[in-house]
Specification:
Blueprint lengths: L1 H8 L6 H10 L1 E5 L4 E3 L7 E7 L2 E5 L6 E6 L3 E3 L2 H6 L6 E4 L3 E7 H10 L3 H25 L2 H11 L1 H4 L4 H8 L3 H11 L1
Antiparallel strand pairs: 1-8, 2-7, 3-6, 3-8, 4-5, 4-7
């Protein structure tokens, strides 16, 4: 839990009172590799801080799932569109490695917003972090080649990317597994 306080205090100082209220609402959850955290048709009830792990967001398909996002250690995770609108999601969220999440329920987050001075700042920062990750991905899809997207992902998370099956990486960068194999051969 101290990792979360350190992370948040890089954004803004936390009083002991605000930290006590905030931390009292956090629930530590540990998940095994390949656990589906949220299924299509379910509503996201949590904004979580990932202490350790790798999570992927994907649209399930009969042939090949369409992976559109990964989240790594020390990041906020959520099917945030569903969390905000309180409507069911059209995608799934799955762990790719053993994962530790510190979860805040939607209702508890509303309480934090109301009862603390810092709650709205933390909520805004989590929202902005999720938005910036999404925006970066969209811009990369529009302006980078598949090879550039692969290299960026590999550069940003080299120790973790090795834990992600190649078929998910290929889907994420918008190519077939065979196309990814060609890129990898060309790079090495």
């Amino acid at each position: 839990m101290e990792k979360i306080r350190e992370y948040l205090e890089r954004i803004t100082p936390l009083s002991d009172r605000d930290w006590h209220i905030f931390s009292s609402k956090l629930v530590k959850c540990e998940f095994a590799k390949k656990t589906v955290l949220l299924k299509t048709g379910q509503t996201e009830n949590y904004l979580s801080f990932m202490e350790t792990g790798i999570v992927r967001y994907y649209i399930p398909k009969n042939d090949n799932d369409l992976t559109f996002a990964f989240t790594f250690d020390n990041s906020f995770i959520s099917a945030y569109d569903s969390f905000l609108t309180r409507k069911p999601t059209v995608y799934q969220v799955q762990t790719l490695s053993p994962t530790i999440l510190w979860r805040l329920s939607y209702d508890d987050l509303q309480t934090i917003y109301a009862d603390t001075k810092i709650g709205n700042t933390i909520g805004r920062f989590a929202c902005e972090a999720i938005y910036l990750t999404k925006s970066k991905r969209e811009l990369s899809l529009l302006s980078d080649t598949a090879e550039q997207r692969y290299l960026k992902l590999f550069t940003e998370q080299p120790q973790l990317i090795r834990q992600i099956p190649l078929k998910y990486i290929a889907s994420y960068i918008g190519i077939t597994p065979q196309g990814l194999s060609r890129i990898r051969r060309r790079i090495t």
